[in-house]
Amino acid sequence: xxxxxxxxxxxxxxxxxxxxxxxxxxxxxxxxxxxxxxxxxxxxxxxxxxxxxxxxxxxxxxxxxxxxxxxxxxxxxxxxxxxxxxxxxxxxxxxxxxxxxxxxxxxxxxxxxxxxxxxxxxxxxxxxxxxxxxxxxxxxxxxxxx
Length: 146
Ligand SMILES: CC(C)(COP(=O)(O)OP(=O)(O)OC[C@H]1O[C@@H](n2cnc3c(N)ncnc32)[C@H](O)[C@@H]1OP(=O)(O)O)[C@@H](O)C(=O)NCCC(=O)NCCS
Hints:
Helix content: 25-40%
Distance between the termini: 31 Å
Number of helices: 4
Strand content: 35-45%
Strand order of the largest sheet: 1-2-3-4-5-7-6
CATH superfamily: Gcn5-related N-acetyltransferase (GNAT)
Number of strands: 7
Low-confidence stretches: none
Bound molecules: coenzyme A
Order of helices and strands: EHHEEEHEHEE
CATH topology: Aminopeptidase
Mean pLDDT: 97
Radius of gyration: 15 Å
CATH architecture: 3-Layer(aba) Sandwich
Oligomer: single chain
CATH class: Alpha Beta
Structural class: alpha+beta
Shape: globular
């Protein structure tokens, strides 16, 4: 059974491994910082071991999804959906008005996930990410929570 809940310091090793399966853009120190104020750092667990994580940031008005990743072997099992639903639920409970996120325009699986959860397109940042073969655009997406 897959359960979602707050990340714990002991989860760091698994989280760093999952990050390597994704875009590997955050350092260990960045995850350690996120764990200090861990309320918006969610993990999905199976047999108590993290298999995915989501990190949000709440500014008192809106929530931003900073990070979302699922280990390769656990993809397409609804793990990211479960994490996002939990984050959106928390956001609503805290009174957030909107959940924002930014995604690489070439990341079809993530865009399909967000569209399925009724995120809409709100903006485009041209040539925002540097890639091995040039640049790619960033899509800005958002979902109203009220
Ligand atoms: C994007 C990611 C988080 C999806 O996680 P996941 O647990 O596999 O997603 P889910 O199983 O909850 O899938 C939910 C929906 O996402 C979409 N989706 C997921 N994987 C997909 C794929 N390979 N191709 C197309 N759509 C996909 C589908 O719409 C799917 O709904 P469906 O099962 O009804 O078809 C995962 O692939 C990942 O960790 N990727 C690397 C990190 C990353 O890109 N993070 C997002 C940064 S913005």
